[in-house]
Amino acid sequence: MFENVDAVMLARIQFGFTIAFHFVFPAFTIGLSSFLAVLNGMWLWTRDDAYLQLWKFWVKIFAVAFAMGVVSGITMSYQFGTNWAVFSDKTGPVLGPLMAYEVLTAFFLEAGFLGIMLFGRERVGDTLHMIACLMVAVGTAISASWILSVNSWMHTPAGYSIAENGQFVPEDWWAIIFNPSFLPRFAHTLTAAYLTTAFIVGGVGAYHLLKGRAGNKSVATMFSMAMWMAALVAPVQIFLGDAHGLNTLEHQPMKIAAMEGHYPDYPDGAPLFLFGIPNEEEGRMDYAVSIPKLSSLILKHDLDAPLDGLNSVPREDRPPVAIPFFAFRVMVAMGFLMLGIGAWSLWSRYRGTLYTNRWLHRAAVVMAPSGLIAVLAGWMTTEVGRQPYTVYNVLRTVDSVSPVAAPAVGASLLAYIVIYFIVFGAGVFYILRLMGKTPTPRDKGVSKEDGPIRTAGITPAAQVAGPGNLPVE
């Protein structure tokens, strides 16, 4: 069924599908690990049980999401050898060490302290348990930094030379790691992860408030903390997004042209298209709704600043327009809706109606997945906008794919789709079930007086001690 389909397109679809599944879990757990560290620190500082209840509530969700992120990341990495072997061979001397350092400095740090964080509260003491919570949070941020350094280098390659065999050879590791787009991309993505978590936490808190659980202090605290994060971080994220856009304009102007839908050159100021249908064949925007010169004002802070369009480069060097154009608008729309929710929460807090404003709670529930939608839309914008290259302006996508026939790629794609929807669908369903439960004052189950749980159900002493028997010493 795939004999007449382009193998390169199938390989791109497969990688896009698997990374979309993977991306949502780190985007959630990066922020959630920091939230858990804050909750644990607040409990140690105040000894308010509301923070401890929230920590126990969210740590279960974190454990499931973290596990699914690890599993989806492992399967995704295999595609570098199966579908993108040429890319792996040519970029391996540069990207291989960076990926290895991510494992050595970040993944091992997270994995080493994760068990203490999840199960060590009663075993290692408050101080070491707090350190474990901090190390897991720091590890997720370090992991993101290495991955984003790899990704940024593919967008703005630096610090390398090309050997006679076509491989990229590292010349300056500082230039490679801190390539021109790394810092704005890292700041924008990390802040997006924190904002994503804030809206998920806020949505869960709003759900419980709508269920009449405002009297539960943990629920009220959860919603209040999330709304503070939304109000403070959303405007920062918009500022960082603008800085990232200016960096992209400097290093990848054709990506910006695709995002803005600019086909012709604009020597006297470019319009901002609020809506339109990209016409690739004719090189224009159909049914356009635009504001004159606003794009030049946003991108260059000058109404009359010139901007180059897609028609200024050969067709084979242009990125596709439809996906970056629409995905970028989805991301921006989500960002301004988040800003609106944050401002609304501040007004409600000022009015004393933060926990009783049911319309705010309904909006927060609807906006709960907005961060995930925004990060996926942003990822599609930046990655599709990099085409037709895997390493921008140096290595083309068609020259990066493995010599694998389309039916083989298509068969593995179908297998991924079926397995992912079953496995990760079940995982997401379980996470939603956990979110639907109310944070309780104490976990149900055995108490300390019951002793340790044994696989046989009883302790060795209980097997011997009993009526007429002396306890074992």
How many DSSP helices? 15
**Given the helix and strand composition, which structural class is it?**
mainly alpha
Number of strands: 6
Distance between the termini: 72 Å
Task: Round the mean pLDDT to the nearest integer and report it.
Answer: 85
Spans with pLDDT under 50 lasting ≥5 residues? 443-473
Strand content: 5-15%
Q: What is the helical fraction, as a range of percent?
A: 55-70%
The strand order across the widest sheet is 1-2
Largest sheet: 2 strands, antiparallel
One letter per element, helices H and strands E, the order comes to HHHHHEEHHHHEEHHHHEEHH
Radius of gyration: 26 Å
Shape: globular
Main location: membrane
Keywords: Cell membrane, Electron transport, Heme, Iron, Membrane, Metal-binding, Transmembrane, Transmembrane helix, Transport
GO molecular function: electron transfer activity; heme binding; metal ion binding; oxidoreductase activity, acting on diphenols and related substances as donors, oxygen as acceptor
GO biological process, one term: aerobic electron transport chain
